[in-house]
Amino acid sequence: xxxxxxxxxxxxxxxxxxxxxxxxxxxxxxxxxxxxxxxxxxxxxxxxxxxxxxxxxxxxxxxxxxxxxxxxxxxxxxxxxxxxxxxxxxxxxxxxxxxxxxxxxxxxxxxxxxxxxxxxxxxxxxxxxxxxxxxxxxxxxxxxxxxxxxxxxxxxxxxxxxxxxxxxxxxxxxxxxxxxxxxxxxxxxxxxxxxxxxxxxxxxxxxxxxxxxxxxxxxxxxxxxxxxxxxxxxxxxxxxxxxxxxxxxxxxxxxxxxxxxxxxxxxxxxxxxxxxxxxxxxxxxxxxxxxxxxxxxxxxxxxxxxxxxxxxxxxxxxxxxxxxxxxxxxxxxxxxxxxxxxxxxxxxxxxxxxxxxxxxxxxxxxxxxxxxxxxxxxxxxxxxxxxxxxxxxxxxxxxxxxxxxxxxxxxxxxxxxxxxxxxxxxxxxxxxxxxxxxxxxxxxxxxxxxxxxxxxxxxxxxxxxxxxxxxxxxxxxxxxxxxxxxxxxxxxxxxxxxxxxxxxxxxxxxxxxxxxxxxxxxxxxxxxxxxxxxxxxxxxxxxxxxxxxxxxxxxxxxxxxxxxxxxxxxxxxxxxxxxxxxxxxxxxxxxxxxxxxxxxxxxxxxxxxxxxxxxxxxxxxxxxxxxxxxxxxxxxxxxxxxxxxxxxxxxxxxxxxxxxxxxxxxxxxxxxxxxxxxxxxxxxxxxxxxxxxxxxxxxxxxxxxxxxxxxxxxxxxxxxxxxxxxxxxxxxxxxxxxxxxxxxxxxxxxxxxxxxxxxxxxxxxxxxxxxxxxxxxxxxxxxxxxxxxxxxxxxxxxxxxxxxxxxxxxxxxxxxxxxxxxxxx
Length: 825
Description:
Elements: H1 7-19, E1 32-36, E2 49-50, E3 69-71, E4 76-79, E5 82-92, E6 95-99, E7 101-103, E8 109-110, E9 113-120, E10 127-135, E11 148-154, E12 161-169, E13 175-183, E14 194-201, E15 204-209, E16 212-218, E17 233-241, H2 243-246, E18 256-266, E19 272-274, E20 278-279, E21 286-291, E22 299-302, E23 308-311, E24 317-321, E25 327-334, E26 339-348, E27 352-359, E28 367-372, E29 375-380, E30 392-397, E31 407-411, H3 418-421, E32 425-433, E33 440-447, E34 459-466, E35 474-477, E36 479-482, E37 493-500, E38 509-520, E39 531-536, E40 542-544, E41 548-556, E42 562-569, E43 572-577, E44 582-587, E45 591-601, E46 606-608, E47 612-617, E48 623-625, E49 632-633, E50 644-645, E51 650-652, E52 678-679, E53 685-691, E54 697-703, E55 706-712, E56 731-732, E57 752-754, E58 761-765, E59 772-778, E60 784-789, E61 794-798, E62 806-813, E63 818-824
Parallel strand pairs: 3-6, 20-26, 40-47, 48-56
Antiparallel strand pairs: 1-18, 2-7, 4-5, 5-6, 5-18, 7-17, 8-17, 9-14, 9-18, 10-11, 10-17, 11-12, 12-13, 14-15, 15-16, 19-21, 21-24, 22-25, 23-24, 25-26, 27-38, 28-31, 29-30, 30-38, 31-37, 32-35, 32-38, 33-34, 33-37, 34-36, 39-41, 41-44, 42-43, 42-45, 45-46, 45-47, 48-51, 49-50, 52-53, 53-54, ...
InterPro entries: Beta-glucanase-like, ConA-like_dom_sf, Glycosyl_Hydrlase_16, Ig-like_fold, PKD_6, Secre_tail
Pfam family, one: PKD_6
Family: Belongs to the glycosyl hydrolase 16 family.
């Protein structure tokens, strides 16, 4: 009798669909075309073959996976309507264990259709049962070149989870695999029979558990490798003992039996409810639809308590707003094959609240960058928006030469990783990328046991998130993917690994930010973040270089206690204090420094204070006067009769602006006589001039009645001091042109900025500035960060790209009058 195959029919239908430019459709009412209901008293050998031994006869001792069993016919029985495959602890031919394995090769070979089995899985650590398919004729070469389809694999030491995978690619060790897992909401798989199935058509395979779709793989998913799933495949049913995936065997749990109620093959596909199985608390606008039904099917939908059908009742697709209750999305309909009621259980998660950030680039991180096979850099936010308006983000350029490209962080604040497995805690991350929709990002937790070459040892757990949008910020929530090493300690996690597009050779760029840990909100609004502020020194303080000071902070927590306060200078930690008052000693360094304090409460929630900017000055260091250009008029030394206006900026020898020296004014008069001193708004002289009989001029630059530097046009002239203060040493840069002096005026004019502190937008009202011309933003080193042309009496500046800190805003009007004011972001 010729072996049964539906391949020719499938290929014929597929060809007709292509020729007619219509989608391929199987039978509307799927019919069983091959089955075994196991209703007899022995294995039906017209449908199945026994496989025996330890794999050595096939050239793959341990069946290619270091398995410990020897398969025996006696371990396969049929009785009371089920097939039973039993694993036992008994020695035979050098193996410590026996079990059973059967296949349908040359007796049941198929290409395309629906393939399902109802199975009750065994309980027993170390067991590894499977319902799977292999290529019958190996048209494309030996394993895995011709493919493997795992309809269901079960690692009994993780009894609530099953796997659905495909294997393909080049010969070992360059073989490839990918797939997904399904985890029960309640109970474990050995408690009852469950139906495991795939639907397979040209270019696509779909996995189901009890009618629920949980994985889809397409031709594009295996690129650049070949898709071998277009030839005849046959079934295998077995229970392996130990091995690479099975793990350590618990002999006390043997014997253990897998029971199979039926195996069936259909010539078409079944209807199912398609949609999210897990949704956020009070999720809005979630779509559910019926697949494999006629488009005009009338459907009556019902939803869990507290949920609302927004639209679509009566059609094959509905939009649902959820409340707080989990439950079934149900669809009742008649598709022409009979009345049906389908359910999809949907878990509505508890609400989550942010606990702390591992890395967000604008604040000191709680995770430490360790290494990467790609390139990590800190850059300006590429496209600030309402979701992520941070000034800085991380930029990760994936290494196209690394199939498993990794970015490694050291962490010390994951004290119990099991809380992420149980969803008491979750990982969130913002991502901006042009990588294709559907690209996966994996977050992997590792213990000290893990090494680059001993996978899966020490890999505690893996979490997955998927790119859903391109070229815009999106908030990704990571869900549990698997636990590669079930023995890994939950209290020994020291590394967090990010894998962007793992198992690929792509070179996309990923901007990421706000890699955060969230806790379940247990009803009180969750853990409230602590409050912290730096109390000393004050913002804008000018201190002496080398001076020893005490930096102090005040911190409190409304719903707990403060565990510690850590102090940072320019993002670098300088010490930790665990008791109130929180303080640390520090020696002032030259130049501008930014102080922040990070308070962490007893629930590991952290808050960073507003920054405090200070300046360290050395009384003996030389000061350079940097000369730019004059705004209006000309200081003409030759004629001795012209007047002009100019301003001077004083920079230290490191190029940093001396804050109080930026107080300047105008001077005028002939240069044959002394011009009266210019004063600031407090009446303190800030600039003096002296003319000589030779027409030369000396400009003294003074701060708080102290001469910081001299600008002589004629070095033979004497320098006039400010008041009676002694002069400090100083150097003067070469003038770019006679009479040109740098311009930073500060007169007593009126303008206002708000809000201050600001986050993204600063609004400017110019008051008595009749025609504001230019607005500029400086950092404390005197560097111009932003310039905007202004027209009129009000306007605004977008500062969203700037990091948090202290800045100077300068406004210049049409008469070159200038005013500066401090801005806190």
